[in-house]
Write a structure and sequence with these properties.
CATH class of the largest domain: Mainly Alpha
CATH superfamily of the largest domain: RNA polymerase sigma factor, region 2, helix turn helix motif
Strand content: under 5%
Structural class: mainly alpha
Number of domains: 2
Largest sheet: none
Low-confidence stretches: 90-110
Helix content: over 70%
Radius of gyration: 18 Å
CATH architecture of the largest domain: Orthogonal Bundle
Number of strands: 0
Shape: elongated
Length: 174
């Protein structure tokens, strides 16, 4: 097994063995990122493959500053967002309150639940809300950045996050 620097160097030389090693080393972690932004495992696998293609194409742009894994995660998030935006069936105009009766609950309920249970619930959120929720709560982007990524307003991002949070709280309290 090659160290990270050597692995990157060999991948830049189009060494297929090194590319496979890089894929094997990071695929499961990056698949977790993809799953958070897609509706199905098949879509997540498509995003993963597309993301790795981008990683290999842009590998020379990685300058060794910061975490290599973090750099790859950012590419996966951007790939997942592109996949989301290209899928015309997802829109941000549906009011989640029209679908579910949402009531205010204590925010501390989320902190009391196991991470696995929360992830399961997040994965069942309506797609548009889940994407905004993941970008804000998991990835740490601010609403302005999310708006730019998704071609929506900052206010829409804030609204979608708030509604997603209420949706999640309702399910955590049932």
């Amino acid at each position: 097994m090659l160290n990270e620097e050597t692995l990157i160097s060999e991948c830049l030389k189009n060494n297929r063995i090194a590319q496979k090693e890089l894929y094997d080393k990071f695929a499961s972690t990056l698949m977790g990122v993809c799953i958070r932004y897609t509706n199905s495992r098949e879509d997540a696998e498509d995003v993963l493959i597309e993301g790795f293609t981008t990683i290999f194409q842009k590998l020379e742009m990685y300058k060794g500053e910061g975490s290599f894994e973090g750099w790859m995660k950012r590419i996966m998030v951007n790939t997942a967002i592109s996949h989301f935006r290209q899928n015309s069936k997802y829109r941000f105009h549906q009011n989640i309150d029209d679908v579910f009766d949402v009531s205010e609950k204590q925010e501390t309920v989320i902190e009391q639940m196991e991470a696995k249970r929360i992830l399961q619930l997040v994965n069942t959120m309506p797609e548009g809300y889940r994407v905004v929720f993941n970008l804000y709560a998991v990835e740490g982007f601010n609403h302005r950045e999310i708006g730019e990524m998704l071609s929506i307003s900052e206010g829409t991002s804030k609204s979608q996050f708030s509604k997603a949070r209420k949706w999640l709280q309702k399910r955590l309290n049932t």
